[in-house]
Structure prediction request, 226 residues.
Amino acid sequence: MVRSPRMKKRLSIDVVLFGAICIVAVLLLGGCAPAKMPTLSLFDGTTFDGWQGNLQHFRIQDGAIVAGSLEQPIPQNEFLCTENLYRDFELSLKVKLVGDPATANAGIQIRSRRIPNHNDMVGYQADMGQNYWGCLYDEGRRHRILAKPGPQRLHQALKPNDWNEYVIRCVGPRVQLWMNGYQTVDYTEPDESVEQAGVIGLQIHGGPPAEAWYKDINIRVIPQLR
Prediction:
């Protein structure tokens, strides 16, 4: 088809406008999208650098942090915590409980803080033990389960008496948990007064002899959108 000079001019203008729109869109989207942050290791496998807690109840063995003891009862809840605070992040780690399955209990604290002059903590906990595996518990605050998987999903996700991988993602008021690739919790905090930043803690629950093992602890900080 032979185009007239007017059609050619209109076509050129349309192409220029379309190109300009594309460039503006790319610039805008690029400016808004957060940069992907690198994944950092929180535990070097050999030292407690970057962590603090009562080391009478924590040791390092075979490249893992081991909490508790199989030789004697655990007198009270104990936590090993990061020195740094974290707000929005994706945390991944491998965990294992050793001891009587009916009583052994532990968990991973997130967005938490220590209670002054006390052994306990306040904050969200990705729970471990009995039917609490895969649950989001509110430690030291509301003292209840905030969200949990159904029995079928827990059966799919859990590897009893073995290493299990937890992935914990916190962005704004939303907290999500995965176990071994299966999502167990997708919770949005309705209370705006609840703290959204804090330390990460590794727990052994007070009670009969038990051990909680933690290894391959990695975190990716998620930048906040402005």
